[in-house]
Design a protein that fits this description.
3 domains, Alkaline Phosphatase, subunit A, 15 helices, Immunoglobulin-like, nine-stranded mixed beta sheet, single chain, membrane, transmembrane, 18 strands, alpha/beta, seven-stranded mixed beta sheet
Length: 506
């Protein structure tokens, strides 16, 4: 007896191909994450990063004295509010910029890579913003300078001065195109930003040079305050990073003399307190830093920072880093540190052990605790032991974070998979000096990075970034395109077959 052959109707074929297309193009489900607070931590609800363009640490740090190229000591800023902020904050004494120009400084700050540029910033998982987006943070920018194309692309929404000009201020509001991967921007926040953009010209109407320059920076501070107030009132519990760049101090260094530069610093000092107090009130971390400093040839001269004669000076390379959060241990932090340490340090303050893809900087430990993240290839179990004693255990997940661990202590991590599959190692020992990530691999799968901390690696280099982007991303893109073309072709053929069948019946 001949077996029956089932004939599929064209619409059934179309339905099957549609389901196949959706299955192929749908992203894999995101990994889950379970946290355990081993010891109490007070994680900030977000962070405000104030990047003061061109602010030199020797002009505001009491331990340092600025000098001109000819050796003349220069007048320092007389400050009232920044010293008060220092009392509750950690202040890094030596924080050095490896690149003394605006694009380079911002690129290093957000990637943790000392050789970073705008192109590296644009790479996948290359910045602090990428790490924070994976944690559900909203990234907001208010930038008068430093708004390179790749920095802008990392923000969910940004206000920026298109002209980077005090005399011709032109504020534009930009936001990412909406997609399943981008968070929705609240209409109320957009309204706050639009109102701030409309008010901007009123800050620079004065004919007095001092008031015009200080007004430029004051607009940035006032706008940041408006954003923090909106988020506290309308989106409590929503974590976010607000990046603020104020540009008048840099412009003062270039276009006024060193006395005008110092005067502009003092004006910012007078305006900064409301933003800092809002951060304290709403459990936000507050960070003050700069992209580069400023040097002067002699007393009563205009300054610079990028040219060869200025770029190697302490006044140009040394920038401030002042960090406030409720868990921060206040005081002066000694040692040699660089801008590449900024991103791992900031993520540590936010209790996030993950790091950007090309980070080479190390975490400056500013809290009294460290954190440990465990990654499994699939759902499983992880337990944490110290001195032979079980500290805590977590299960039914593929990622775990242990918060509030003791710095300088050795821990044992044991893991197993729910499926019963074997791991390359069931137990790992780790000495925790800073936040770390431990990855367990399924048996038979090579693991190149068992423990990731802030030690850097050979693949975390700018040159390697080009190779990684050019090969892995290109090949993934090409594969997706081929699959898409194949499915579209099959759908078209099925459509033609259906039309032909209808015509034949008629």
């Amino acid at each position: 007896m001949m077996s029956a052959i089932r004939k599929f109707k064209p619409f059934q074929v179309l339905f099957f191909l549609t389901i196949l297309f959706i299955f192929i193009t749908s992203p894999a489900p995101a990994s889950a994450l379970t946290e355990s607070e081993v010891n109490p931590v007070n994680t900030p609800e977000g962070v405000v990063v104030l990047i003061v363009d061109g602010l030199s640490a020797p002009f505001i740090y009491p331990e340092l004295t600025p000098h001109a190229l000819d050796g003349t000591p220069l007048e320092k800023a007389s400050l009232e509010n920044i010293p008060k902020i220092n009392e509750d904050s950690a202040r890094i004494l030596e924080f050095r910029a490896p690149q003394t120009f605006t694009e380079g400084g911002h690129s290093v700050l957000v990637t943790g890579n000392p050789g970073a540029d705008s192109e590296l910033v644009s790479f996948k998982d290359a910045t602090v913003f990428d790490v924070l987006h994976r944690q559900g943070y909203l990234c907001i920018g208010v930038m008068e300078k430093g708004d390179s194309w790749s920095i802008r692309a990392e923000q969910d929404v940004i206000l920026r001065d298109e002209n980077n000009s005090i005399n011709n201020m032109k504020i534009a509001l930009e936001q990412q195109e909406q997609s399943p991967d981008t968070p929705e921007i609240p209409g109320g926040l957009l309204q706050v930003l639009e109102e701030a953009a409309d008010k901007a010209p009123g800050y620079i109407t004065s004919k007095e040079t001092r008031e015009k320059y200080s007004g430029y920076d004051r607009w940035g501070i006032d706008t940041a305050c408006a954003v923090v107030e909106y988020m506290a009132r309308n989106m409590p519990g929503k974590k976010y990073m607000l990046t603020v760049n104020v540009g008048a101090i840099d412009s003062s260094g270039h276009h006024r003399d060193n006395y005008g530069y110092v005067d502009c610093i003092e004006c910012l000092d007078a305006d900064i307190s409301p933003l800092y107090e809002l951060c304290k009130k709403n459990n936000l971390a507050f960070v003050l830093t700069a992209d580069h400093g400023m040097g002067f040839s002699k007393d009563d001269s205009k300054g610079g920072h990028q040219s060869e004669k200025f770029s190697s000076t302490e006044e140009t390379q040394l920038v401030p880093l002042i960090v406030y959060a409720q868990d921060i241990e206040s005081g002066v932090v000694s040692g040699k540190h660089g801008q590449e340490d900024f991103t791992p340090t900031l993520l540590g303050v936010l209790d996030i052990p993950d790091r950007p893809r090309f980070v080479e900087g190390k975490q400056i430990l500013l809290t009294g605790h460290v954190n440990l993240k465990i990654k499994l290839p699939e759902k499983g179990y992880a337990e944490l032991r110290k001195d032979g004693n079980l500290i805590t255990s977590l299960k039914n997940d593929d990622q775990f974070v242990f918060l509030g661990l003791e710095p300088g202590s050795t821990y044992i991590v044991r893991a197993a998979l729910d499926s019963g599959k074997s791991l390359e190692e069931q137990e790992k020992e780790v000495l925790l000096e800073t936040d770390s990530v431990i990855e367990f691999m399924e048996k038979g799968h090579k693991n190149t990075e068992n423990v990731k901390s802030d030690l850097g690696s050979e693949e975390n280099t700018t040159s390697m970034a080009g190779f990684l982007k050019g090969n892995s991303e290109a090949s993934n893109s090409n594969s997706k395109h081929l699959i898409g073309y194949f499915v579209i072709g099959l759908v078209n053929l099925a459509g033609v077959a259906a039309i032909a069948k209808i015509l034949k019946k008629n």
